[in-house]
Automatic annotation (TrEMBL):
It is found in: Cell outer membrane. SUPFAM superfamilies: OmpA-like (SSF103088). Residues 164-281 form the OmpA-like domain. Residues 1-24 form the signal peptide. Residues 127-146 are annotated as: Disordered. One of its GO terms (cellular component) is cell outer membrane. Pfam families: DUF4398, OmpA. The keyword Metal-binding does not apply. Its main location: membrane. This is Outer membrane protein OmpA-like peptidoglycan-associated protein. Keywords: Membrane, Signal.
């Protein structure tokens, strides 16, 4: 009896999935939801025969960006960098889909003939023109968004933002306040200016300003101090031009410490104000 052996063949997505699985054997990186969405969008486009046939080059560029995002995630790149690459992947998938629609409409227009079809041909021509215009606008949006996203990522890196379950968090340390006071020191002006710039460049962005203290003193006194410090940061940002309706404050007092209050170093880390950028607020 003859036995045949088959060697599995992996497509582009199979290679990405396999690479991710092999990488996971060593370490399990934090899940990145933006990257998950980018993968899903790419798979949908890759399974669309019209996109495969009419926009292979555009789809290839989306695949290359997705591969770069995957590799950046595996290599432990900053979340902001992975998010940006995932965003670029989704935009390039959109360009591939719109380009395929445009080319399909153009092919229909070219195939239309005869006096009897003139009216229909005119309609299809307008549809093709609209699809072309949409593709050009989408490409322009990607270029503008890339520039803004790169700038925003750089600012957030300067402020040492961290990605958490609550969203991106920028921590202002105790050194930016006078001792046991809610008054901001002159050393805080640089961070305040950078935060204000982030809000100016992202008009839809909102944030919660949350105050924390160490466990020294009474719980009531610590709660009041954390509230005053959060309000002081809000007032400083409003003075720098951030609309007050995009900011809110929350006091936590000595709750939710990030370090051991038994040491001076730990207490200093616990005395902080966190700027929590809303997860669902688009950066545009």
């Amino acid at each position: 009896m003859n036995m045949r052996f088959y060697r599995p063949v992996y497509g582009p997505i199979g290679l990405i999935t396999l690479a991710a699985a092999l990488s996971a054997c060593g370490t399990v990186p934090d899940r990145n939801y933006a990257l998950d969405q980018a993968r899903t969008r790419y798979v949908m486009a890759q399974n669309d025969p019209q996109v495969l046939k009419l926009a292979p080059g555009e789809l290839k560029r989306a695949e290359e960006t997705l591969r770069l995002a995957e590799q950046s995630s595996v290599n432990g790149a900053p979340p902001a960098t992975v998010d940006h690459l995932a965003y670029m992947t989704k935009q390039r998938v959109t360009i591939a889909q719109e380009t395929a629609s445009s080319r399909y409409a153009q092919s229909i227009t070219a195939a239309a003939a005869g006096e009897r079809d003139r009216t229909r041909l005119g309609m299809r021509t307008r549809e093709a023109d609209q699809a072309n215009a949409d593709a050009r606008r989408s490409e322009a949006r990607v270029e503008r968004s890339d520039a803004r996203a790169n700038d925003l990522a750089a600012q957030l890196q300067e402020l040492k933002a961290k990605k958490t379950d609550r969203g991106l968090v920028v921590t202002l340390g105790d050194v930016l306040f006078d001792n046991a006071s809610s008054s901001l020191t002159s050393a805080s002006s640089g961070d305040m200016a950078k935060l204000a710039a982030v809000f100016r460049q992202n008009p839809l962005l909102k944030a919660s300003i949350e105050g924390y203290t160490d466990s020294v003193g009474s719980a009531n006194a610590n709660y009041a101090l954390s509230e005053r410090r959060a309000n002081a940061v809000l007032v400083a940002l409003v003075k720098l031009g951030v609309p007050a309706d995009r900011l809110s404050t929350q006091a936590h007092g000595q709750e939710s410490p990030v370090a051991n209050n038994a040491t001076a170093a730990g207490r200093q880390l616990n005395r902080r104000v966190e700027i929590v950028f809303a997860q669902d607020a688009p950066a545009r």
